[in-house]
Amino acid sequence: MARKTTSKEQRAKSKEPVARSKTRKVKQPRYKSFRVSKRIKITNKPLTGSFRLLARSLRLLRQNWRLFGGIILIYLLLTVVLVKGFGVSNNIGELKETLADAFDGQSARLVTSVALFTVLLGTANSTPSEVAGAYQSILLIIMSLVFIWTLRQILADKEVKITIRDGFYKGMYPFIPFLLVLLVIGLQLVPLAIGNFLYATVIGGGLAVTALETGLWLILIFLFGLLSIYMVSSSIFALYIVTLPNVRPLTALRSARELVRYRRWLIMRKVVFLPIALLILAGVIIVPILMVSPAVAEWVFFVMSMSGLAIAHSFLYSLYRELL
C-alpha cells in the first residue's frame, strides 16, 4: 500500500522549483570601446613577449628556408619584371659622394650611411608608373595569400610534403574575401592618412607658429594615428580568419574583434613593435654595407624588403595562433 505524503514533504516539493529559479549567476563583464569602465580581469593565458615571438617567427622561416626562400625568390623576380622594370638602382653611389662633401669629421661616414638608409626607405614603395603600382598591389595580395597558406600548412602538424607550387595553386581561393577585408582595413587607415595630411600641412607648412599650437596639433595628429592603430589591431587578424574555408569577410571581422577583446592594448603594442623591429633590423644590416658599397646595399635592401613580407606574416600568424 502506497505511503501517503505528509504535508511537510508536499511543502518541500513545492519549494524546489522556486529555489532553482532563484539561483543567481555571476554576470559576465562586458566592455565597450571608447567608454570608461572598470578594469576587467583577464582569464586567458598570457601572450608570448614581442622579442620571443619575433625570434620564433624567424626560426620558423629558417627551419623551412628552402620553401620560403623559393617563394621569396619568385616574389623578387616578379617585382623586378613587373614593377621595377630592372630599375632597382636609385643612384645611391652618386648621392653618397654628394653627402660626403657636406659632412665632415670622424662620424661623417656613419651620418652619410644613415642618411642614405632613410633615402632607401623613402623609395621602397616607389614605382615608375601607375601600372607598375597596380602590379605591386596585386603581387602583395597574391604573395600574402601564398605565405598565409604555407604557414598554416606548416603549423598544422601534418606530415604532408608542401611545395612552392601548392602555395600558389591552393592558396588563391579566398582572393575576393581577402581583398574585401583589405578594403575595410584601408578605410580604417583613413584617420592615419588625415593625420599625415595635417602634419604636412600644419607642421611642415609652418602654419603652427607657437609651441602651444604645435603641441596641440601634434596631439590631434597622434590621436588620429592611434584611432587607426586601434581599429587595425583587430582587423589585421581577419586576414588570417577569412582564408579559412567558408568564412565570409564580416564573420572574419567579428571573430577577429572577439579574439582581441580585453587584450587590445597589449596587441596594439605588438603590432606597433613589428615595423619598428623590422626597421631596426634593416638598419643594422644595411648601414654597414652602405659604408662599403652603396650598389650592393641597394640590392640587399631590395631583397630584405621582399623578405619583410614573409617575416611580417610569420610574426602575425604566430600571434594569431596564440589568441585562439
Overall mean pLDDT score?
82
Number of strands: 0
Helix proportion range: over 70%
- Principal-axis shape equals globular
Cα(first) to Cα(last) distance is: 61 Å
Count of helical regions: 13
Sheet-strand content, in percent, reads under 5%
> Unreliable segments (pLDDT under 50, ≥5 consecutive)?
12-23
Secondary-structure map:
Blueprint (H helix, E strand, L loop, with lengths): L6 H15 L28 H14 L1 H20 L7 H11 L5 H15 L7 H25 L9 H7 L4 H14 L1 H14 L7 H31 L7 H11 L4 H29 L1 H30 L1
Can you offer a commentary on this structure?
The protein has 324 residues and is mainly alpha-helical. 73% of the residues lie in helices and 0% in strands. It contains 13 helices and no strands. It has helices at 7-21, 50-63, 65-84, 92-102, 108-122, 130-154, 164-170, 175-188, 190-203, 211-241, 249-259, 264-292, 294-323. α2 crosses α13 and α8 packs across α11. It starts with 6 loop residues before the first helix and ends with a helix. 21% of the residues are buried. Mean pLDDT is 82; it is low at 12-23.
Which features characterize this protein?
324 residues; 73% helix
The gist of it:
73% of the residues lie in helices and 0% in strands. The chain has 324 residues and is mostly helical.
